[in-house]
Amino acid sequence: MKILVTGGAGFIGSHTVVELLNAGFEPVIIDNFSNSNRSALAGLRQILNHDVPFYEADCNDAEALNAIFEKENFRGVIHFAAHKAVGESVAKPLMYYRNNLDSTLLLLETMQRYGVPNLVFSSSCTVYGQPEHLPVTEETPRLPAQSPYGNTKAICEDIIRDTVKAGGPVKSIALRYFNPMGAHPSGLIGELPLGVPGNLVPFITQTAAGIREKLTVHGGDYDTVDGTCIRDYIHVVDLAKAHVQALRLLDSREETSYYDVFNVGTGNGQTVLELIQTFEKVNNIKLNYSIGPRRPGDVEKIYAQVDKVNNVMGWRAEKTLAEGLQDAWRWEQNLQLKNSIVSE
């Protein structure tokens, strides 16, 4: 099956491309590099020993999407392309609503026009807001999102669900994933934020590498064991494999209209300080960090109930937090080595 991967040069997208090929699918990437880097394509080439079909285009460009769908015979789409920084979305809500909603609407319209039946949507546990009870199940009520980013994910889920309900004909799964981290074990692809990282792990690795002087932990007075936020950290390779399983499930469904949501996490929560201490231990590095004020939009604690994704989709997280932090540091070291060679 030929699968369009929007945002396929990004962090999760590039790892999913690898797992799609490993599973016998034919991924085709579309990316405009607004939040990714061309070097991911070179990394993919090294891992896979060949180039992956690629289009440089914006998912908000109707003409470009039509041309790609006209040329390729897609069986499905995995939709990653979106703005995704919580803090930035609080500061620039209109930019997030315009980009994330419009691209999803246009993609659905194009899929219908060309009869592409399967859509895996990159959603997020942010749709749950700050849940009243933990762990979070798929039946947990969606509370008001803590950020415009989270709200765009909730609205996109509703758009997709209503499209399926109206007889699409589209089948779709929304994967509500928790906190992706890590990198490919080869160290050839990983998380590559543009500018100052918005996510914790790349900020940790950049601090360890000396790029950042100090890591600031956002809030030390939460109602948790050590006062820092709790998250469910999932290895990006495990997460990538969940998208492959979602595609397989969609294609196995005989009905023309099917929609479901799945939490994708480990089922365990760690505090920010526990993650930092694990990084220090497994990589034998002492980090320079301090506790700062809370950050707008952050949820205090959240982690997944994963029975549904384990039992219905046949997927489970296999890699540990320690493995993810080792892989992330290997990726960062390789990145700095490349940069030093280029600058010489």
UniProtKB/TrEMBL annotation:
Start and end of every NAD(P)-binding domain? 4-327
One Gene Ontology cellular component term attached to this UniProt record is: cytosol
* Catalytic activity, reaction form: UDP-alpha-D-glucose = UDP-alpha-D-galactose
In its keyword annotation, does this UniProt entry include Isomerase? Answer: yes
GO terms under biological process: galactose metabolic process
The record's GO molecular-function terms, alphabetically, read:
UDP-glucose 4-epimerase activity
Pfam families attached here?
GDP_Man_Dehyd (PF16363)
Tell me which family the UniProt entry assigns to this protein. Answer: Belongs to the NAD(P)-dependent epimerase/dehydratase family.
Give the multimer and partner information.
Homodimer.
Q: PANTHER family annotated for this entry? A: UDP-GLUCOSE 4-EPIMERASE
Protein name, per record: UDP-glucose 4-epimerase
- Origin species: Larkinella punicea
